[in-house]
Design brief:
single chain; mainly alpha; 89% helix
């Protein structure tokens, strides 16, 4: 589906919109995952990626690619490290109480 969208946008001369749509599609799973798993940092990261998709409409294509990398960092990598830290703390508490 993304291939068809890309083909349509590029050959109609509207390739600048593609990066914004990609960011928007990138933000939706982050928001939904955060709501379902009840993880606030994932929701905030998804909202930040959604805001970046709106802002990237007004930027040149080179900066839009930088916005995509920033969205990856904010929406998935930072919350992932926070989730990993929470998991390690829970494991440490479990080992403490199980002994």
């Amino acid at each position: 589906m993304m291939g068809i969208l890309w083909y349509t946008l590029v050959f109609n001369g509207q390739y600048q919109i593609y990066y914004s749509l990609l960011l928007m599609l990138y933000a939706m799973p982050a928001i939904l995952s955060g709501v379902i798993l009840k993880i606030k940092s994932l929701v905030f990261g998804g909202i930040a990626a959604m805001v970046m998709s709106v802002v990237s409409n007004h930027l040149p294509p080179a900066y839009q690619l930088l916005m995509i990398s920033a969205a990856v960092l904010v929406a998935w990598i930072i919350p992932g490290y926070q989730i990993q830290g929470r998991f390690k703390r829970q494991q440490a508490q479990h080992k403490l109480y199980s002994n």
